[in-house]
Structures are given as C-alpha cells and as structure tokens.
Amino acid sequence: QVQVVESGGGLVQPGGSLRLSCAASGSIFSGYVMGWYRQAPGNQRELVARITSIYSTNYADSVKGRFTISRDNAKNTVYLQMNSLKPEDTAVYYCHAYAGGIDYWGKGTLVTVSS
After folding, report:
1. Which residues of 94-114 are buried (b: 16+ CB within 10 A; e: fewer)?
2. DSSP string covering 89-104, please?
C-alpha cells in the first residue's frame, strides 16, 4: 500500500507561481512513476505532468513551458513548479503514483488562480 499526500495549493494571482509537493510512502519510491493530474469543475481529470523512474518527463500541451515536474528520491517527494499561472489552471490537483502495477491517488489540493 502506497500513501500519497499533496500539499502546497492555494490562491494565487494570474501570472504568479506556486509549487506543489507530493510525498509518497514506500521503500522503492525511486521506481514509481509519479504524476500530477487536475480536475476543474465540470471537467474530466486530466494529466498535467508525469515523471518516470529514469526522470523522463511529459507534459500536457497547455502547461508546457510553464510547469516543471521534478522528483527527489531521497525525500520520497515529487514537485510541480507552476509559473505564469492562468485562471484556466484553476483546479484540484491530484498526485498519482504508479507502483507495482497499481494506481495510487492523493486526495487533491486546490489551486485557484484569480485576481
């Protein structure tokens, strides 16, 4: 069983920055594929960014050049640095871990981009 806990959400003005963190349990975190998803009201959950065990990354087209995913295996933590935030980035952001063929989800953290 892997537990995933997000933190770092909040209210930010358009053009601002925010960093989300996600801590995952387990002794083989370095082998997990970690990702960030988001879900805005009325929309389906969508992939924002993903990072593999060999640090390969991929991003949604809507966030390329603005968001950066990274991981610190020593801290069992994955980060999402979000810059140049837009109102359309407003959503609940969920951390996802894929470990041992199983999907694990956090409870989500709300990001609101508004003036």
Report:
1. bbbbbbeeeebebebbebebe
2. G-EEEEEEEEETTEEE
Strands 10-12 vs 109-113: parallel, antiparallel or unpaired: parallel
pLDDT of the residue at 92: 98
35, 80 contact by CB (below 8 A): no
Q: Which amino acid is at 42?
A: G
Structure tokens at 77: 């933590």
Tell me which residue has tokens 């109102």: 87
The one-letter amino acid at 31: G
Q: What is the pLDDT of residues 79-93, one digit of tens each?
A: 999 999 999 999 999
Span 22-71, pLDDT tens digits: 999 988 888 899 999 999 999 999 999 999 999 999 999 999 999 999 99
104 phi, psi to nearest 5 deg: -125, 140
Question: From the CA atom positions of the chain, what is the Rg in Å?
Answer: 13
Both tokens assigned to 50: 């993903």
Count of CA atoms in the C-beta half-sphere (13 A) of 47: 14
